[in-house]
Structure formats: structure tokens, C-alpha cells
User: Which sequence fits this backbone?
């Protein structure tokens, strides 16, 4: 079955630690996205990528980094500079850039120890 | 720039009653509008999408939404609520490269 996988389901971060969230899709989609979800705030865009080896900052990119070395993969690193990382992180993809429907993975919940 | 406002963070309905979730948008271009549903600790699932082809859009699970340009609204309805409709619902508007989401409406269904 085609879809988007995210791992791990739960992730614990210690003070000063960088952690990486995985996102993989087998839908052959060009565009991929990372969102952060906090209670009562909807989803906010962190980074997006429209094509391999290219990505742009979203609305809340500070403290995060990404790479897009393969079409199927778009990992997100939460760096120690992100002072409030506790949230639910959602990865999405769409066939092309623009107004295409975005399809979402199951999410990763990041907690701080 | 575009934005979405969802009126009411929580809605409680009886099983079998009408479900009505309100969404108003602002957009500088003709909008593409979406409704997504999220069950606890899961990702978002597309319910329906408006792309200007028809003002009444039918989606999955018996939901539908009507686009009203004069009111800048895209309200979601379901004639008869089921216990399985308990979830969080998000309205979103798209410009050329990203989705902007509303804050969400949590639906509870009373037996």
C-alpha cells in the first residue's frame, strides 16, 4: 500500500540534544512538508520541499533543520536551539507543488525529559 | 496571504443529530479549501476538497460542505451524527504553495 510513514511514534529528547524525526513516502510525490501541532493552534508549517535537494522555511523554522537527498525521504531535525519542542509533528506530501491535496503521515509525538 | 477561522473550538451533538462545523476564510486569490479529520494521536485524513468545480462538495463518511463566496464560508455538515464522528476537524485554505489551517473544532457525540 502507498502511504507515508513516520518514525518513531514517540520520541524523548534530553536537554541540549538534537533529535531526528523520520518521514518516508512511497507515493512518488514531489513535494513534502513538516508541520507542528500544538493543542488549540491547528497546524503550523515548519519546512517544505518542492523537489529533491531543495527546501524552504515555513512559518516556524527556527530551531529546526531538514534535508531532502532522496525523493522518498524528508527527515526533520529538532535542534537544541528549539527551546519548546514538545509537540505532535506531522509529515505530509503532495503530488506537485501548489494546490494539490496534501496527504499526512501518522505523526511523531516529541516529549522532553 | 490567506487565513481560516473556525467558529467554535468544541461542538457537542447527540447521536443522529445534525453536525455543523463553521469555517470562514480569507484569500487574495480564488481559494482551494479543504476539510480534514483527525482521530486521537493520528494523522489528518482528507474529508473533502473544493476546487471551484461545484459549490456543494460531497466527501467521505457522509460529510459535505458548501462554498459560499459572498459569505467567504465553507461550512461542513453531516445530517446524522454517528459515534464514530467524534474527532477533531480542521478547515484549511491553500494558496500557491502551502496550506493554512484553522485552530480546529473538536466534536463529541452523545449517545
Assistant:
Amino acid at each position: 500500500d502507498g502511504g507515508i510513514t513516520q518514525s518513531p511514534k514517540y520520541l524523548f529528547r534530553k536537554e541540549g540534544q538534537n533529535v531526528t524525526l523520520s518521514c518516508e513516502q512511497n507515493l512518488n510525490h514531489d513535494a513534502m512538508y513538516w508541520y507542528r501541532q500544538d493543542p488549540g493552534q491547528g497546524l503550523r508549517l515548519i519546512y517544505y520541499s518542492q523537489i529533491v535537494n531543495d527546501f524552504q522555511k515555513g512559518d516556524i523554522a527556527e530551531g529546526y533543520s531538514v534535508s531532502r537527498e532522496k525523493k522518498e525521504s524528508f527527515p526533520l531535525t529538532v535542534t537544541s536551539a528549539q527551546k519548546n519542542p514538545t509537540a505532535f509533528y506531522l509529515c505530509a506530501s503532495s503530488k506537485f507543488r501548489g494546490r494539490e491535496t496534501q496527504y499526512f503521515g501518522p505523526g511523531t509525538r516529541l516529549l522532553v525529559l | 496571504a490567506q487565513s481560516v477561522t473556525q467558529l467554535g473550538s468544541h461542538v457537542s451533538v447527540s447521536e443522529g443529530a445534525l453536525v455543523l462545523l463553521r469555517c470562514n476564510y480569507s484569500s487574495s486569490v480564488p481559494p482551494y479549501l479543504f476539510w480534514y479529520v483527525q482521530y486521537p494521536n493520528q494523522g489528518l485524513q482528507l474529508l473533502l476538497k473544493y476546487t471551484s468545480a461545484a459549490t456543494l462538495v460531497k466527501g467521505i463518511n457522509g460529510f459535505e460542505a458548501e462554498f459560499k463566496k459572498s459569505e467567504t464560508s465553507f461550512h461542513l455538515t453531516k445530517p446524522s451524527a454517528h459515534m464514530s464522528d467524534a474527532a477533531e476537524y480542521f478547515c484549511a485554505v491553500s494558496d500557491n504553495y502551502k496550506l493554512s489551517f484553522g485552530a480546529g473544532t473538536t466534536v463529541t457525540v452523545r449517545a
Q: What stands out?
A: The CA atoms of residues 5 and 24 of chain B lie 5 Å apart. Chain B has a mean pLDDT of 93.
